[in-house]
Design a protein that fits this description.
By secondary structure, the chain is mostly helical. The chain is built from two helices and no strands. It has helices spanning about 5-55, 60. The termini are far apart.
Length: about 70
């Protein structure tokens, strides 16, 4: 294989690797954004669950028999 052909082959491989790296970078950035969104949603849901559980009946009244029994 002559030097020109070898150089062309290396340049093609380098261009492919460069393109793949850019694609992977974009994928990672997208995943980071999505993860941040999911973390915020989980935090909101956890806060909602805490709020709902604090508004609910106390533990004593859960086991009480309703008055009509």
């Amino acid at each position: 294989m002559d030097d020109a052909k070898r150089l062309t082959n290396l340049e093609e491989k380098f261009a492919f690797l460069e393109q793949s790296l850019q694609h992977l970078d974009q994928t990672i950035l997208s995943q980071e954004r999505r993860l941040a969104q999911v973390e915020m949603q989980v935090t909101r849901i956890a806060d909602d669950v805490k709020a709902i559980s604090s508004q609910g009946p106390s533990d004593d009244s859960i086991d009480e028999v309703p008055p009509h029994y």
